[in-house]
Design a protein that fits this description.
Layout: H1 21-24, H2 42-57, H3 74-87, E1 93-95, H4 104-112, E2 117-119, E3 123-124, H5 125-130, H6 132-138, E4 148-153, H7 157-167, E5 173-178, H8 183-188, H9 198-211, E6 216-221, H10 226-239, E7 243-247, H11 263-272, E8 277-280, H12 286-296, E9 300-303, H13 305-309, E10 317-318, E11 327-333, H14 334-347, H15 352-369, H16 371-379, H17 385-397, E12 403-407, H18 416-420
Parallel strand pairs: 1-2, 1-9, 2-4, 3-4, 4-5, 5-6, 6-7, 7-8, 8-9
Antiparallel strand pairs: 10-12, 11-12
Bound molecules: flavin mononucleotide.
């Protein structure tokens, strides 16, 4: 449970260029609301990138990972998909993509508490290419942030490829979002609305598979009819998709609390495909993880909404909503997790709107007991870390504590000195 903490300064190549390492060392991200961290010395960066490269090259898998997928025959492509997955350690517990919410500090927090891999929030491929500010604000990463899926939405293969090339040195999959059901996706002609335009879907996947050095993954929703879902999934595999995440709700089933994800449909996809398949939907605690893996036969699970309330889910912690007879106080709570998250944000700056969103998600139940503190937070148009740590301290002073729970079968001990370090700093400290 200890972070290694060397920042990998992020760099971007110019549009249309190949991501040559020398190019990539030219630029670096700018944090949004504080001075940039001191960049690594260039030779250190070079060494890190080369170490990473050599570790992938030293893998003696049958297929060199730099070969774009579609250069390979059908059988070899499937083997390559599995050799990549195996090389990553077959991650099972995965942080789902969440706009404004699965940003670097949150991913690192979830990784500390058991997540094996994580997706970035969806990035808009065209804006990513065109706007440096968007790139710098919306995509940051570091050495510890692997395995990493970087997700884009797109409807133009060339634009998608340009965006993907900028990030491929920093991730393990470039993912395409075919699942977004929101109105903005309808207007922008991407996400789940491409389920009506399957030739566009195919061209996007093929373009990346033929030209990228990292594998392409896709995240989809299911169709109302199982046979449509299966032929969709097969088409993606044939187009060069190396890993498929299936959210078991249809495009119209937007409300995750109202509609249960269909694990049977996910299981059918898993049985029909030969590449790794991940299940998404209804994963709220570790019992769900185990049941989902068993029922669907999938290679891993994604969780989204439940992680926002409880980033320690994959370490076996659960919120009071899921208490059972065999659960007990896990000696950890959401305020501890918020303090950890804020410390990560101090180290790896992100836009304040993301931080604000996590404060509400993590302390939602606490604010229910003291709504005046929530109102104070809402009234602050400009946030500071001092103010946010102050909120945690005031809630504690007022005696609020809502523990996270653990079942006897999933116990993660948090050492006392570690817990002490998760107290919010006070003005005097
Ligand atoms: C705040 C939020 C933002 C999301 N953003 C994305 C996104 O950027 N890309 C995506 O593919 N899905 C996105 N989703 C959907 C989730 O990845 C996931 O598919 C969905 O919430 C179902 O999983 P769950 O039942 O564990 O919540 C988002 C969900 C939430 C709650």
């Amino acid at each position: 449970m200890i972070f290694k903490s060397k920042t990998l300064t992020l760099c971007f190549s110019t549009p249309n260029s190949r991501p040559l390492i020398s190019n990539l060392l030219m630029a670096q991200t700018r944090p949004v609301h504080s001075d940039p961290p001191p960049p690594l010395q260039q030779h250190e960066q070079q060494q890190e990138v080369e170490e990473e490269k050599s570790s992938s090259l030293s893998d003696t898998a049958a297929f060199r990972l730099e070969s774009p997928t579609l250069c390979l025959t059908g059988e070899a492509r499937i083997e390559r998909a599995w050799s990549h997955w195996n090389k990553l350690g077959r991650p099972k517990l995965i942080v789902a993509p969440m706009v404004d919410n699965s940003e670097l500090p949150f991913r690192l927090l979830c990784r500390k508490y058991g997540a094996d891999a994580a997706y970035t929030p969806m990035l808009h491929s065209r804006i990513f290419n065109e706007t440096e500010k968007y790139r710098n604000e919306e995509f940051t990463t570091c050495k510890e942030d692997r395995p990493l899926f970087v997700q884009f939405c797109a409807n133009d293969p060339d634009i998608l490829l340009d965006a993907a090339r900028r990030v491929e040195p920093y991730c393990d999959y470039v993912d395409i979002n075919f699942g977004c059901p929101q109105r903005i996706a309808r207007r922008g002609n991407y996400g789940a609305f491409l389920m009506d335009k399957l030739p566009v879907v195919k061209s996007l996947v093929e373009k990346l598979a033929m030209n990228l050095h990292v594998p392409v993954s896709c995240k989809i929703r299911v169709f109302p009819k199982l046979e449509d879902t299966l032929s969709y999934a097969k088409m993606l595999e044939d187009a060069g998709c190396s890993l498929l995440a299936v959210h078991g709700r249809t495009r119209d089933e937007k409300d995750g609390k109202k509609f249960r994800a269909d694990w049977n449909a996910i299981k059918a996809v898993k049985n029909a495909l030969r590449i790794p398949v991940l299940a998404n939907g209804n994963v709220r605690h570790m019992d769900d993880v185990e049941n989902c893996l068993e029922e669907t036969g999938c290679d891993g699970v994604l969780s989204a909404e439940s992680l926002l309330e409880n980033p320690a889910l994959f370490a076996g912690f659960r919120t009071a909503e899921w208490i059972e007879e065999s659960t007990k106080d896990g000696n950890l709570d959401q305020a501890h997790l918020l303090v950890e998250y804020l410390k990560l944000c101090e180290k790896y700056p992100v836009p304040w709107r993301m931080i604000r969103s996590h404060v509400h998600k993590l302390l939602g139940e606490w604010f229910r007991i003291h709504p005046s503190i929530r109102e104070e937070l809402n009234a602050q148009s400009i946030l500071t870390f001092e103010f946010l740590y102050g909120i945690v301290n005031r809630l504690r002073e007022q005696g609020v504590r809502i523990p996270l729970y653990q079942k006897d079968t999933h116990v993660t001990e948090i050492p006392a000195d570690e817990l002490a370090s998760l107290q919010a700093p006070t003005a005097s400290s």
